[in-house]
Write a structure and sequence with these properties.
Layout lengths: L18 E12 L5 E12 L2 E6 L8 E6 L5 E13 L2 E8 L14 H7 L1
Antiparallel strand pairs: 1-2, 1-4, 2-3, 3-6, 4-5, 5-6
């Protein structure tokens, strides 16, 4: 049996704090069969380095996508880094920005740790 401290969770490895949300976004890219798609959806978890969304299109790990924030019309190039469970025809997809972009979300009060990312 291995001894592991109870507080050793992956959260201490995160580059920026996660924020639960329901933020409207539009995702553009190519599905696994190379068909271009545009999928209006919501970012359900935000961070300065990316987000978790749900997609109806099928995408692969490592795929490049463009994410647009509906509220401020900003766009961000990102990569698929996580594929989760499929529910109701949509799959949880984790996206990582090519570069940290905490300002992309337009949050009035971003987490304190995000300011470090801004420099």
């Amino acid at each position: 049996m291995m001894n592991r401290p109870a507080d050793k969770t992956r959260s201490h490895l995160r580059r920026s704090q996660r924020v639960p949300a329901q933020l409207p976004v539009v995702v553009q890219g190519k599905s696994t069969d190379e068909t271009p798609f545009t999928d209006p959806t919501r970012a359900v978890v935000l961070s300065a380095h990316g987000c978790l969304i749900t997609l109806s299109a099928s995408v692969r790990l490592g795929e490049s996508l463009v994410l647009r924030n509906v509220a401020n019309r900003k766009e961000q190039d990102c990569r698929v880094v996580y594929l989760g469970e499929k529910q109701g025809g949509r799959t949880e997809v984790g996206l990582r920005f090519k570069t940290a972009a905490p300002q992309f979300w337009g949050l009035e009060q971003p987490p304190r740790g995000w300011k470090v990312v801004l420099g």
